[in-house]
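note to self: dont lose this again. the chain is below, predicted strucutre after it. 222 aa total, dont forget to put it in the shared folder this time
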Amino acid sequence: MSTPTTSNPDQLSIVPAATRDGGVPAIGWARIAMVLRPLQGQASATVVIELVAAGQIVIDWGRRVYWWTQQPAAFPTDPTVMRIRMARGDGADVPFMQEQPGRLDVLLWYVGLSAFPTSPAWWLGEGERYRLSAWPNFTELQHNPEDVRMTALLASVPMSVAELAAMAAVEPVVATRLVNTLTLMGLLVVVPGAQTPPNLPTVAPTEKRASLFSRLRLRLAR
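---
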């Protein structure tokens, strides 16, 4: 497959790796996530991610698609990023390509789950409460039942990561990974000043979970 390019290749600028904790740079999927996260709300952008021994990932942000040259049979767990280049603003789009692109949300879902597997994403604020603003298309995402259950809970009331883990009866790291991912995908909003819901149970009762799943099935059926 030929590599897509922007209409003006000179627009592409090298993006340095984000740093934290005394200048330690982000690597692998975390480095990629830190580049993609600020693009939420951007109408047009192209990102070219050059990987060692895995080709390039070219993202057309405006069309919400991506191409991956030399894509492995399975997503690598810890890719080595050689360079990331990006163009933003008017004209920073990828020309129409004959090859079938991949849907960007599929890539963002995997990046979100993999970038910070045991800790909050760097952009999350401590104690923030989140509410679901739009549903992910679970029919095209590799997910677990608890991902659906937690997403349904976030659609019902603003919750912090700790509250979500307690309500869904999952380990905190599991709730953290989902919040990392949904925020990267632009599907969660921070609710300023949201208070702990009254009488929030530590474990969701079976009948309440069933009700949530019933509502979820109705949403997905639309």
